[in-house]
Amino acid sequence: MSSQDIPEENLPAEQDTEHGAVAVADEENPFADPGLPPHEHRIQDIDARAAKRSERTVALLFTVSMLATLGFIASYVTIPNDRSIYVFPIGHISAMNFALGLTLGVALFTIGAGAVHWARTLMSDVEVADERHPIEAAPEVKAKVLADFQAGAKESQLGRRSLIRNTMFGALAMVPLSGLFLLRDLGTLPGTKLRHTLWSQGKLLVNMNTNQPMRPSDIAVGSLTFAKPEGLEETNEDFQKQIAKAALMLVRLQPENIKDKRELSWSHEGIVAYSKICTHVGCPISLYEQQTHHVLCPCHQSTFDLSDGGRVIFGPAGHALPQLHIGVNADGYLEALGDFEEPVGPAFWERG
After folding, report:
1. Rounded CA gap, 251 and 219, in Å?
2. Could you count the other beta carbons within 10 Å of the beta carbon of residue 37?
3. pLDDT tens-digit map of 114-149
4. What is the largest CA-CA distance in the chain?
5. What does the pLDDT look like over 258-286, one tens digit per residue?
6. Are 228 and 267 contained in the same domain?
7. Number of domains composing the chain
8. CA dist., res. 273 & res. 51, Å (int)
9. Is the pTM higher than 0.70?
10. Is the keyword DNA-binding in the record (predicted)?
11. What SS3 state is found at 254?
12. Range of 299's domain?
């Protein structure tokens, strides 16, 4: 039977949709347009009390953001920058950094959470399909876009929900205050703080692992040992701040393998002491090549020759590792004979 024999009312209708697709597939149009699923109303669309609850929730999130911003400012002003706290399982960290990160994170998160909750529960969720158009839209399309924007602005209920509007504007206005307070320290120079560590004349070298003073016999040829100044304990409130400058590594070389004359005179029986802090960006150095006497920074592969004044032989580091002048006291323990003669760590400041 041909299509001409079928009653016209029984033929499937090829209904052209707004986008040029067809409702029923055929050979010329193998993909039918299923259209949009029926819209399902949310509880907030039909229950005014539920909508009010959502509004209060969004306002609460924006209010928490404002309180967190005030907490950020209060933390920055009141917490000393040398105070540390113990946070499990991280360990001792700066109390100010912890408070600033926590309050700023809460301020930003609650703004985002409030905006998402507002959009999901109160703004219109009706799906609107629109045909793609050339980059230069026709006048009628421009008029439609403008009308859609105005309708969307009306459906957002920004004018109607004054509680949400006011708290949102308050939260957005207060968040930049955090940055204004941070600008206060941009012009403050460190003075001589970066040029001094806890090392001084007579300070014993204490093994970082055993927490005991070291004798020359404790360091074998070819070994790498980490040390800290006498009296610096992990329980100290400023431990992280001080160890970041005073961390020391000791290597025992054969005296005849030491090329630099000053390095030889500053060592004891071939034991040389250098700063453990890489001079690139301050990472702790921990990799030692026994045969070449090279130490490698694991962060960016800066390599230093401990047999030749700690000079840089590879990588982005800008200058040699600072050496600590060491000797032995009357009791036979290794001791410092002074502080480093130059700042340890990255060359972020003028070294002239």
Report:
1. 8
2. 7
3. 999 999 999 888 877 776 656 777 788 888 988 888
4. 119
5. 998 899 999 999 999 999 999 988 899 98
6. yes
7. 2
8. 69
9. no
10. no
11. coil
12. 193-336
